[in-house]
């Protein structure tokens, strides 16, 4: 009895019939390929994507410590903290991690739409969740890489102490902050139709929220109206929680901030997933 299939019978044709998925579970190979592509993309211009934001963050530290005096204390949570030690963690997470995460995530799909190569993201056998995971993962990789460089440089800077007191809080809020801006970047990349749209979000949303989040000051010293605005700014909870990991004190409830940012990350992730699934502004 022959072990060959009958003439005209092609098992692969049955497996690949229309509507029958070939990859029934997670496409790990495709997910890894797109993630590596995103990482290699920003590594090809690492002077601009990695070293430039790290240098800018360090310049912020140098200028503010020289202008105000590195030893000037800031009263946070009932404790006087040297000014340089106070602003260093905020600079790492806001300028060194969140801004690069947004810049990376807001570029991928947008440049595909502008150059007409968006099909390279939509045609491969990747689910919407796999596509979103790869884009966000690439952005967060850039964020942690720049943040690590900033932290190492600040550790060598005289008069600045950036030894973590609670490393778990540093990693957790660094993860939440990078993911928050990565999801915002993906959503911006889906919505924007040209680079001016993405730049408008950066200049009129990301930059104001970042600079008015308590990076350079304690919100306890603000007038009641400005203090209330700070407490509805999600950047404030990210920076405050990240600073808590280094200083052991914060000007906001760390647990409340963690829950708020986690909830926002989940909501933004679902919003990005729905937009990708519907093909909003991608499949027109």
UniProtKB/TrEMBL annotation:
Family as reported in the entry's similarity comment: Belongs to the ABC-2 integral membrane protein family.
The species this protein was found in: Sphingomonas lycopersici
Record localization: Cell inner membrane; Membrane
Membrane topology: Multi-pass membrane protein
Listed name of the protein: Transport permease protein
Transmembrane residue ranges: 50-70, 131-157, 169-192, 198-219, 254-276
GO cellular component, one term: ATP-binding cassette (ABC) transporter complex
Keyword Membrane assigned: yes
Stretches assigned to the ABC transmembrane type-2 domain: 44-279
Keywords: Cell membrane, Membrane, Transmembrane, Transmembrane helix, Transport
